[in-house]
Every structure is written in C-alpha cells, then in structure tokens.
Amino acid sequence: MMGDFDLESESVGPGIWLMRLSGKVSALHTPGLRAEVERLMGSGYKTFIFDFSTVTDIDSTGIGAFLAIAKVLSNVQGSARIFGTTTHIKKVLELAHLTRYIDVFPNQEDAVANRNVLTAAL
Predict the structure, then answer these.
(1) H/E/C letters for each residue in the chain?
(2) Which domain holds residue 61?
(3) At what angle do helices 60-75 and 30-41 cross, to 10 degrees?
(4) 108, burial (CB in 10 Å: exposed 0-12, middle 13-18, buried 19+)
(5) pLDDT tens for each residue of 48-75
(6) Is the Cβ–Cβ distance between 66 and 80 less than 8 Å?
(7) Domain count, the chain
(8) CA–CA separation, 33 vs 21, rounded Å?
(9) 5-9, 27-31, 38-42, 87-91: the lowest-pLDDT one
(10) What is the C-alpha to C-alpha distance for residues 25 and 84, in angstroms, rounded to an integer?
C-alpha cells in the first residue's frame, strides 16, 4: 500500500498479468506502475489487464503512463486492457482518448478472453 494508491497483481493465464489498482492513479504512483509492467514484460508477459473497479481518480500523468504502457506493449505485439471502470473514470478515459489505444471491458472474464462487447447507440 502506497498511501492513497494500492497495487496487487497476479498471473491469470499464459502471458497474461492482472493488476488490481486502487485509489488515485497519479504522478506519484505511475513510475512504479510502469516499472512493474516493464519488469513483468522481461518475464514474458505481453498482455496486461488492469482492474479499475476501485480506482477513484486518474490524473493526466496516469493517463500518460497508460498511453506509454500501451505503446510499449504494442511494439511487442502485446496489449493493455482495462475493466471495472466507474462511469466517471470511463468518461475521463474517453475524453483523454485513451480508449483508442486500450480496450475497456465490462468485467475481468471478458478482458481475459478479449471479448469486447460492442453496443450500438440508439
């Protein structure tokens, strides 16, 4: 636990790593998050799934960190995926155009299976 931010992680399949984030994703915490992703990439992980179900806020540095993570993973044919966002956090990710680079899923099972459910607006 790092004050107002917490990170727990585990393998959830071959080459797939789940990171449960909690609290505010901010400039104070993103260097450690990026370093952990890079360390795990060195161990062969190319798909990272981020659980945002208890993320309360994300600042511009947090958005930038996820853009950088998405770029690094794309360079090795990997991917970053997010699930469990609140309506507010999802809107922030959309406004920052992060959803162009990282898919957002409704739940962990869909994120692991890479089943992105598209819904048509009526």
Answers:
(1) CECCEEEEEEEEECCEEEEEEEEEECCCCHHHHHHHHHHHHCCCCCEEEEEEEEEEEECHHHHHHHHHHHHHHHHCCCEEEEECCCHHHHHHHHHCCHHHCCEEECCHHHHHHCCCCCCCCC
(2) 5-113
(3) 10
(4) middle
(5) 999 999 999 999 999 999 999 999 999 9
(6) yes
(7) 1
(8) 10
(9) 5-9
(10) 15
Cβ–Cβ < 8 Å for 112, 83: no
State which amino acid sits at residue 48. Answer: F
Other CB atoms within 10 A of residue 47 CB: 20
Angle at 21 between CA 64 and CA 95, to 5 degrees: 40
Q: What is the CATH number of the domain that holds 45?
A: 3.30.750.24
Residue 99: inside a domain: yes
Distance CA 12, CA 5 (A): 22
- Residue with the two structure tokens 């048509």: 120
